[in-house]
Each structure stands twice: as C-alpha cells, then as structure tokens.
C-alpha cells in the first residue's frame, strides 16, 4: 500500500507523517530506516523541509512474517490494498503459537500474499477462537491496523454473532453486563468476576426449539471468550462449548452430533479506514438447523 499527500503548507516531513497522514511514532521510526519516505520521488529523512505543492509518498510494504508461508484454503469475502476479510471455518487456529507453528489461518494468509506478490504482513483485527467460525478481518499493514484498532476502541466496528445455546435466556432480549477476568491457575480460561474488566453484550432470541435457542449477539466490548462466558453465566451455554458448557449442555451437544462450539461471526460493519466508505462484510457460512 502507498500513501500520497500533496503539501498545502510548509513543514518538516515528520509533521506531515504524524499529522496529515496520521502515522504512529513507532511506524515512523521503522519507515525512516527503510527508504520508504519519498519527497517528489526522492528518498528523504523525517527532518527534510517540505514546501507547499510538493508530494510526499509513503511506502507501507512489510516484510514477510517469521513463520512459514503455506498453501491452504481461504474463503475471501473482501479484499483491497488495505484489507483482507475471510470466512474462517471451525477448527482452524488464527495464528501460530509456541506449540504450533504451521497449519493456521495466518500461515495460509502469508502463503496467499507470497503467491500473489503482495508485500504484506498478517495483522488480525477481529480474532476468533479456534472453533468459532465466520468473518475475520485482517489489515495488510501496521498503519491500517492501528487505525482499525482505534476505530474498534471507539465502537465503530459493529459485530454481529449468532449462537445455538442449551436453553434460552430470560428475558429473551436485553443487555448482559458481566465483568470478566482471568481464571486463577489457568492461563487461557476466563471467568465472570466482579473485579474483572467491564464486558457488555446485547442479545436477542431469534428462535427456540426443543431445549435449545438461537441467539443474536452484539459484543459491545471485546474481552477474551466474552460471548461464551456471557451465555454460560446467563444460564444458556453455547452448544458444543467444552470449556464453559455444563454436563447437560454437553450431553445435548453429543446427542445432536455437535462437536465444536456453535458460535458464528455472521457479519461485520465498519467505515473503511482509508476513505470512510461503509463496508458490510457478511459470512457465507451458517449455523446448522436443529430439530
């Protein structure tokens, strides 16, 4: 991705990078040692004086990640020079870890970038658990990623999930406001606790069946395992959730041949970080129909 800006005032390159172009200080420090800053086509440092009418160009190419780039299936929902939106299937990890360095979505995205000649890194904006499926948004460079994370903190990313649950919530629609903290002694799991971080989820019941319900969920905060914990705390754990489910919910899941959590990232609506136009990203996957 390349940024262009024609100066309307005089000033040093640094003031345009931090001001008009909105680059973070850490990104500016990295770019100035990569010959990624050009003034009227010639490399410059951040202390170069810019005159009105001159054009500043910023090359946002990034190095390949340090984990393997692999060929793997990707279901692309949207792509441009700044963003990549995918439909993640259940059972696929988002990114490599200390214990596993291959076979993740990030490995497949890195392979896709290599095959298509794109000098991009993998910057997840929305992260899904291994078994949660649906819309995943990735930024292609650090500048766009920083902009999207700021938008997310400001509540400009509207996420809609659907879930199949054991039982149904009472009342059938409302707002869950249950703080979440790390479970003591277990590094990955969380729990509802009064001294945790604030977590809010708007919910509504779309359908009920024989002991189950289909809910629409709108996370208003982005805590780890938030939707799974909120459903469980409200007495309607998500079917297939082996970590936060109950014996009864797991028994129903087994009876229905459900072996992963039925949580679907159905859509994501946001303003494009580059030009502000509205993006509506919809998953092509779906929750199964239950009897």
From TrEMBL:
It comes from Candidatus Avoscillospira stercorigallinarum. Signal peptide: none annotated. The keyword Signal does not apply. Residues 83-233 form the Pseudouridine synthase RsuA/RluA-like domain. It catalyses: a uridine in RNA = a pseudouridine in RNA. Pfam families: PseudoU_synth_2. Keywords: Isomerase. Belongs to the pseudouridine synthase RluA family. GO terms for molecular function: catalytic activity, acting on RNA; pseudouridine synthase activity; RNA binding. It comes from the Bacteria. GO terms for biological process: pseudouridine synthesis; RNA processing. This is RNA pseudouridylate synthase. The keyword Isomerase applies.
């Amino acid at each position: 991705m390349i940024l262009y800006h024609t100066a309307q005032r005089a000033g040093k390159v640094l003031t345009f990078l931090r001001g008009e172009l909105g680059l973070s200080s850490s990104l500016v420090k990295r770019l100035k040692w990569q010959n990624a800053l050009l003034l009227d086509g010639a490399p410059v440092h951040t202390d170069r004086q810019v005159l009105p009418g001159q054009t500043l160009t910023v090359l946002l190419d990034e190095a390949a990640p340090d984990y393997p780039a692999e060929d793997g299936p990707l279901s692309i929902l949207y792509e441009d020079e700044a963003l990549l939106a995918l439909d993640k299937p259940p059972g696929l990890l988002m990114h490599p870890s200390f214990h596993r360095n291959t076979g993740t979505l990030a490995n497949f995205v890195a392979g896709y970038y290599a095959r298509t000649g794109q000098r991009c890194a993998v910057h997840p904006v929305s992260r899904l658990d291994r078994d949660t499926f649906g819309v995943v948004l990735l930024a292609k460079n650090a500048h766009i990623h920083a902009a999207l994370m700021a938008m997310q903190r400001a509540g400009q990313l509207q996420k809609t999930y659907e879930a199949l649950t054991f039982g149904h919530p009472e009342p059938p629609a409302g707002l869950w406001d249950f703080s979440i903290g790390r479970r003591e002694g277990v590094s990955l799991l969380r729990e509802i606790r009064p001294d945790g971080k604030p977590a809010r989820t708007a919910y509504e019941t779309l359908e009920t069946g024989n002991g189950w319900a289909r809910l629409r969920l709108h996370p208003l905060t982005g805590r780890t395992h938030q939707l799974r914990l909120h459903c469980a705390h409200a007495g309607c754990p998500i079917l297939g959730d082996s970590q936060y489910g109950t014996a009864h919910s797991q028994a129903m899941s087994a009876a229905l041949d459900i072996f992963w959590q039925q949580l679907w990232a159905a859509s994501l609506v946001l303003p494009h970080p580059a030009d502000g136009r509205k993006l509506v990203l919809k998953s092509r996957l779906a929750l199964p129909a239950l009897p």
